[in-house]
Amino acid sequence: MKRRIIIICATVITTFSVTGTYLYLTSQQTSAPERTSSISKKDLPTFKPKDSNQHDKDKKIGSNKENFKLETGFGNKTLEVGRLTGKVSQESVHKNKNFEIKLTKDKTAEAKKKGSSKLNNTTPNNTLPSKVKPGKVNPGKQEPTEETPIQDINFYDKERVMDPIDAQLESLDIAALEEKEHLVIGADIAKLQNLIATNQLSYKELAGIYLNRIKKHDQNGIMLNAITEVSPTIIAEAEQLDNQNEPNKPALYGMPVVLKDNIGTITLPTSAGTVALKDWVMEKDAAIVDKLKTNGALILGKTNMSEWAAAMDDGVPNGYSGKKGRSKNPYSSELDPLGSSSGSATAATCDFAAIAIGTETNGSIILPAGAQSVVGFKPSQGLVSNEGIIPLSSRFDTPGPLTRTVTDAYLTTNVLMDEASQTPLSKDALKNKRIGLLSDDESNEETAILKKIKKDLTTAGATVIEGITLEELEQVDTDYITLLNADFKRDLNQFLQINRSPMSTLESIIAFNKTNPTRNMKFGQSELVASQNSTMTKQEADNVANELIHITQNELDSVLQNERLDAIVSAGVGGSVKFLAPIAGNPELTIPAGYDTESNQPKSLTFVSKRNTDIALLNMGYAYEQISKNRKSPILTNQ
Questions:
Q1: Is 310 left (phi over 0), alpha (psi -120 to 50) or beta?
Q2: What are the b/e assignments for 558-593, b being 16+ CB within 10 Å?
Q3: What SS3 class is residue 359?
Q4: What is the predicted pLDDT for the residue at 638?
Q5: How many CB atoms neighbour CB 502 within 10 A?
Q6: Which of 211, 223, 316, 570 has a C-alpha 20 to 30 A away from that of 46?
Q7: Residue 4 burial (C-beta neighbours within 10 Å; 0-12, 13-18, 19+)
Q8: Which run of H or E residues covers position 191?
Q9: Rounded Cα gap, residues 318 and 327, in angstroms
Q10: What is the bridge-based pairing of β-strands 298-303 and 227-230?
């Protein structure tokens, strides 16, 4: 009897304990404040709240000058980030020179750089988002925890890339490929074609070497995550070219090319980095893909990108897509890859393909090129077709090459522009040229790299005019973002319907993302919502665009003409010219300029010239490149 009483008492106590615990946990969950995204608390950085008055002040684009605190726990450590803000205002661009990422035991890590008020996905909907983000906070290689394994944060669907690679490498002698790999690293198109012409290499082996490097370094090893799709027939196509023995080959004949994942292809999915379209195969190739194929180039695959060309949410890190995860900067996991064409820049600098193609609306080719030490060329607006490319703004979107040399950018641009002339670039193209050094961003600091830039330009025969300034056009910042909201909604809806996408409207994509927010909108989708809420008519948008183009063209033209300049150059990843030039439609060319001695951070120099002077600009860039010879390939080891 006594034993039965003890058992009954124990059962009652246990029941009360379990019920009480359940009720407590339920009350905790229901009382938690709602977020605008489903990201769990441990995934989000926490920020020091501002008073309401300051928050209202910070809504004004480009006006926020407050420091902020960012805290993300990693065990007993905190990730401290000096924020590199989005390219929404010229003022912020001037300040965005460097960024730091380090682990500290201080639980209240404070950012060292000034940044935007739109810090995370809890930004109010009436705050205008940035459409172009050259530098977002990028923790890089985070320390994994039990709650959030690094794979879940940064790396999705490995089999999409590895399955076609493994299937094709089975037929190749990997040891033989790796013996010849050193011939390919850093090689330009002319050297690759010479190796093949002299039977030191075949097109099949070249494609195999690139596939093997993607397997070793992109999908394994340091897991750069730059590649999202691989052609399952690239080896067979390359072998066919080897057997044809074609005379008078075009420059790009047999060269494997990777395309940013917003460039349409009939054989591989085109997604703009979004889960909603991750399996969508378009019914025809983009216009530039037709041109590449006509000239004998081989489409190797697609590259990772900032989702929707950085039009998803201001909290999305550069190089992150819901489709594939976050891509990294190969020069250091602590460096931001920058720009929405980040995967294309990584593929070019790491020798994952002979040529990479990106797209730029404002900064998305030039900035990742500078951050990852490759040549990036954004042609004059309208000279290269953007037909068949998922749009951000059709009136500004421009495809262009990311390559290891200026010559390769030139050869690729000739194909993209249907330019028949193959006149070699000239080492003397800077002689007697007046080059204006923009006085903002890193051009104000007399660093060893800047001294070398000025010396190299002078040695190449140029007259360097220092102290060149451009007016800060604050209204351009505000109106440009409003315009992009309107353009994106209208252009995307039209594109999806014309090309019979499985998702026919921006509204349907926003709804789809909510079905699995942890994966589909991990960092939120406030910019998609802002675009969906745009009420600007087509006529109103055209009027705003015409005014912006007129203002920016007038500013650049007046500086070039008044100072009698052949080009303006800007050192570093910032510089107001890199914001104004894409709106005005001027060509831009970024070239490696050196490396920081402590961090190994690549430094760059960007040339901007008059509209439709693309070949002259490439010539000037080539002359600088041949004198400076700055570029070094990254060391692809665990960092």
A1: left
A2: ebbeeeebbbbbbbbbbbbbbbbbbbbbbbbbbbbb
A3: strand
A4: 64
A5: 11
A6: 223
A7: exposed
A8: helix 189-197
A9: 8
A10: antiparallel
Give the angle subtended at the CA of 576 by the CAs of 571 and 577, to the nearest 5°: 75
| Residues forming the active site | 260, 340, 364
Percent of the chain with pLDDT over 90: 70
| Measured distance CA(333)–CA(327) in Å, rounded | 10
Contact predicate 610/586, CB 8 Å: yes
In this prediction, residue 473 carries a pLDDT of 87
Q: Is the pLDDT of residue 219 over 70?
A: yes
User: Are 260 and 397 spatial neighbours (Cβ–Cβ below 8 Å)?
Assistant: no
Contact 102, 80 (CB under 8 A): yes
Instruction: Count Cα atoms within 13 angstroms, Cβ side, for 628.
Output: 30
Tokens of 20: 């009480």
> From the CB of residue 66, how many other CB atoms can be counted at a distance below 10 Å?
15
> Is the separation of the CB atoms in 172 and 235 below 8 Å?
yes
Amino acid residing at 298 = L
Helix (H) / strand (E) containing 330: none
SS3 436: strand
Element (H, E) at 325: strand 325-326
